[in-house]
Specification:
The protein has 573 residues and is of the alpha/beta class. The protein has helices at residues 12-20, 27-41, 45-55, 79-95, 112-125, 139-148, 181-192, 213-224, 247-256, 290-299, 329-347, 365-373, 384-396, 424-440, 445-456, 470-486, 547-572; strands at 66-69, 101-106, 129-133, 153-157, 166-172, 207-211, 236-240, 261-264, 303-307, 314-320, 323-325, 355-359, 376-380, 403-408, 412-414, 458-467, 491-492, 495-496, 499-502, 515-518, 524-529, 535-544. Helix 2 (27-41) crosses helix 3, helix 6 packs across helix 8 (213-224) and helix 11 (329-347) packs parallel to helix 12.
Amino acid sequence: MTQSNGMEASLWRDVYQQWLAQPDLDPEIWDELVLLWDSIEGEDAKAIEEGEDRFYRELAFGTGGLRGKLGAGTNRMNRHTIEKTTRGVISYIKKYALGQKVAIGYDSRIMSREFGELSARLVKESGLTAYIYDTLMPAPALSFATRYHECAMGIMITASHNPSEYNGYKVYNSRGCQVTEREASLILEEIQNQPWFPSKQKAKSGVIHRMGKETKEAYYQQVLLQRMDISCEDLNLVYSPLNGAGLEPVQEIFRRIQVGEVWVVPEQEAPDGNFPTCPYPNPEKKEALALSLQLAQKHQADMVMATDPDCDRVGIGVRHQGEYYLPTGNEVGLLLADFLCQQRMSKGTLPNNPLMVRTIVTTPMVDRIGKNYGVRVEATLTGFKYIGEKIGTLEDLGRIEEYLFGFEESYGYLAGTYVRDKDGVNAVMLICEMAAWYKKQGKTLIHRLEELYQEYGYTKNRLLDFQFPGAKGMETMGRLMAEWRKQPPQEVAGYKVHQVVDYLPGGDLPPSDVVEVKLQGETGFTIRPSGTEPKLKIYLFGNGNTREEVEKWLENMADYFTQWVKEKGKESV
């Protein structure tokens, strides 16, 4: 992720004071800063640390746009951050004559609608045309609208699955794909050239269009074109939008594919950015599915499904032998890849030279599945934008029909090319059809998963993430990544290191702050700092003859890295 530069530690207080002196500062932000400054002047250590974290840099902008905690400061999401960023995006559009229209969407998070409306107003005042949804909608629906209305760029206000104190700002190019490194760096230049508090200028006569029924229907029609036309009338499930943007579109798809019975978790039905029953609204986490599982147990539902607040990810639970099993993102991706290949082959709709795409931190077992069906599999860098970019490359070559399916381990999936982002609505529909297909055969998705393991070998993956907040945390993560590059160990947890692959120099893939370590067999791990959160992520790839063998390996590796981070954390203090 491209980042704006931080500042010397001694300067953050000066920037803090400059904000307090601004007559155009948002009154709520002014109150928040004054209250904190009183504690800083009182030499309160926690207040000083908080003040530094708010002002030691500008909130990072890169291929994932912006993401940060809501609040006052240059390193926070607030009205002034949105204004500066949106002016930068507008300047980029005009500088490179990209077009006259900008699509805007927002989810259920705190201030999402307000930030979306503010962005639309700034677009209008710049003389351009804003197309903004008339209600909250999923991130993939914004990707679709950007393409559908032939917009120069798209803006989505969301922080995906982050906790409630976060919000974010994703930027899409005219292809409906999140911006690449080059685009992000050029936009960042324009953002950095914008003052935080500009002098007022006369507004130009742009236009704001409200996207409603027509755009939504066009999106639903494209989702439905990806169907396998399998009856879902015998399938019963529990669904939770986790108080996010998925309720309306997901229920609409349930109705159109005629899912048997659907129970929506009442506490998580209405949009609510506070996420009162689910502080971390991430369908990857079992805690996020707790209420769904309770309701499913009550009704003996076949399945549980939950989408994150911007509805681009989906997590599921499958009733199997009386209990609910929660497949990982990798496992659902393997099931879908196999199902789509199988169905398209049987229907005679498998394209010539078909392609599936995964990221470098997604299970390589899909490569073996693809080979079995005569489908090639290519790997991209982490982030669905790179899968979207791959679709765009196929489009340029006149071979877009080759794309079959793409997925990433973090519960993101896409069949079809109508959007260039992962799509939870699309995934929900396909998972329903897949579950219904196997139910007709007397199987659950877990039965089928075990069949795949028997055929292709047992594999399991685990994601470890370690928090490194604040300025010191960023420094620590940078140092740890540098150590893996310069002085990698000869063995890890007793397992010999066979190869270290550094993606930072680039090559076949663009440069990325990622290190891959290969151990014996097909085991190994990949380590990288998160592009959107203050976390170091370690992806473990276990492979072996038996479940027990792989589970033991994963436990050993998890214990090793937990101790490793604990020791390294002490060194950084």
